[in-house]
Amino acid sequence: MSKQAELDIEYVRSQFPGLKNGWAFMDNAGGTQILAKAVEQMNDFLFNKNVQTGGSYEISLEAAAALQAGREAIATLVNASRPEEIAFASSTTVAMQNLARSMRGQLREGDEIIVTVSDHESNIGPWVSLEEIGVKIKFWSLDKESLELRLDDLEKLMTDRTKLVAVTHVSNILGTINPVAEIADFVHARSALICVDCVAYAPHRAIDVRAWDVDFLAFSLYKVYGPHGAVLYGKYELLAQLDNLYHYFYDKGKVPAKLEPGNASYEIAYSTTGIVDYFSQLGAQGGAGGSVRENIEAAFAQITQHENQLAEKLLSYLRGRDDCRIIGITHGDDSRRVPTISFKVRGKDSGELCKAMDKHKVAIRFGDFHARRLVEYLDLAENSGVVRVSLAHYNTLDEVDALIAALGEVLEGQ
Fold first, then answer.
1. The last residue of a domain, from among 248, 276, 304
2. pLDDT of res. 252
3. Cα-flanking dihedrals φ and ψ of residue 273, to 5°?
């Protein structure tokens, strides 16, 4: 077996102009820095193709081709069967709201949808809103000891009226990777669909919707090194059954445009070609030398290896303090976690701690991160919630050292 290629961190950082301002960005789960390649593609569209699609003239055809290129890029990134399975939205919250709204025609009073207590509200609230048409919402609770979702608990909730299970791939508080392929098999065996919030997973691991056999999946581009937008994936035959959200003359079969009322942002869609090119080039530099998809998978293997080192350095420090409580898996080299690390410090206010870090030019954050149900469920809401350090592959070991040094200084000084 060949040795795993190491991440070329100098090359990586050269691709993100925002990293040159002296800050160590460790609030990446809230939003990553944007790739130069993504901005270049946006500029190319806005300067050279900025017209409406649907015209017969040359520039309109180029605009349509750019939008299609964006769909094709994301289809490759998530390993979808066809580009028509990709719909764009302004955020994952909006993508999930659109999906829930477009499913109303398929649901009847007494039908059931299961959500988890551990999700971001984006994958809870839109489903809870369906209570107004008589849908019954059930909550799949997290095991408070293991901090994991258990299939035994899900089984107790599912009935022949269960239509959909909505689950997060990675908790944006815990950093724990849920086994979505296993959950999908379990849900499908009971004749229900699965919808996955992949926001906190997408920056760290390769997405494979076909291998996992998920029905719907969404994530935010601005948390995967792009501009402020999002994508919704759905199996084509399921998208075709959804209600139309656009003008009345967009029939149900007009996929995916019927899920993009007002049209997609063309320049944001086109920017995704720059994101995919970056991952492909990163994988190729590591020696993958295969298809774009194979290069993407190789890139994420390098990213995982590097991020595990970053996470373990920080978690090792936190484990060594008797006043810190790590929320979630406590070792960074555990394959079940991403480098989104939440903790509380005994007797300290999380907000005051984070604000004290600002003078060190280390960007971290505190609160519940729109996973309020989980924070309250785990009794973590007091003293401004949790401190969250969310690392990305462009962070360095030196930056983590600087974070640790600053934390030590702040904690000793408070």
1. 276
2. 82
3. -65, -35
